[in-house]
Amino acid sequence: MNQKITILDLPFINTTQEKFNQELVKRLQKKLNTFIVTANPEIAVYAHDNPAYKQLIQQADYITPDGIGIVKASQMLNKPLTERITGFDTLTSLLEIANNHSLKIYLLGAKPEIIQQTVQNIQQKYTNLQLVGYNDGYFTDKQPIVADIKEKQPNIVAVALGYPKQEEFIARNRNISDAVWIGVGGSFDVLSGKVKRAPKIFQDLHLEWFYRFATHPTRLKRIKVLPRFIKLVKKEQH
């Protein structure tokens, strides 16, 4: 896991999802405090424009290439990444690991009805993990949540507040529990069943972004960042 590919000053891990999962199992067994950033082109551009945020996520233990745009950028730089490692796939892998080893998990983020449904679906599917706490993302005072996490001492904390909030929350509070802390963006929307993940054919063709746009045209603003991302990467080539 030592090999990293740097894109826009962000050191992305260069491995497979399977090997990364094995690494996470080891870290969970040793109770090593771990911070995972799942970075797509949007996050890379935001970090480029916001040095404080960039510095914060550079301190993460792992930055994963979440999005085919990151993989394509690595190819442009002649430093090809092995494969895309998405936040959603990493989260579901962590749920499986927690289920296999009866680990404690804490969920934070999303709308109240989304988190409720996510909790219900997880408890139905992963009957052996311990879901020790959860909270929606619409809180004004984080202290009760921080106190709750500190008391429960989960092995895994999945934070779905969207960037930059989720990474800021993790960076400031990861010291309260020696857990695997991961920012998971909109993953609870998918786990709850509210948003359907792209069919496998779209995933295999690396067209998940197109499927998401076609089914949710409001995402246009997010897709608009891609040309700028490519432009910044091209600059890095010279």
Automatic annotation (TrEMBL):
Catalyzes the conversion of GlcNAc-PP-undecaprenol into ManNAc-GlcNAc-PP-undecaprenol, the first committed lipid intermediate in the de novo synthesis of teichoic acid. InterPro entries: TagA_TarA (IPR034714), WecG_TagA_CpsF (IPR004629). Transmembrane segments: none annotated. It comes from the Bacteria. This is N-acetylglucosaminyldiphosphoundecaprenol N-acetyl-beta-D-mannosaminyltransferase. Keywords: Cell wall biogenesis/degradation, Glycosyltransferase, Teichoic acid biosynthesis, Transferase. Signal peptide: none annotated. It catalyses: UDP-N-acetyl-alpha-D-mannosamine + N-acetyl-alpha-D-glucosaminyl-di-trans,octa-cis-undecaprenyl diphosphate = N-acetyl-beta-D-mannosaminyl-(1->4)-N-acetyl-alpha-D-glucosaminyl di-trans,octa-cis-undecaprenyl diphosphate + UDP + H(+). Belongs to the glycosyltransferase 26 family. TagA/TarA subfamily. Its EC number is 2.4.1.187. Pfam families: Glyco_tran_WecG. Pathway: Cell wall biogenesis; teichoic acid biosynthesis.
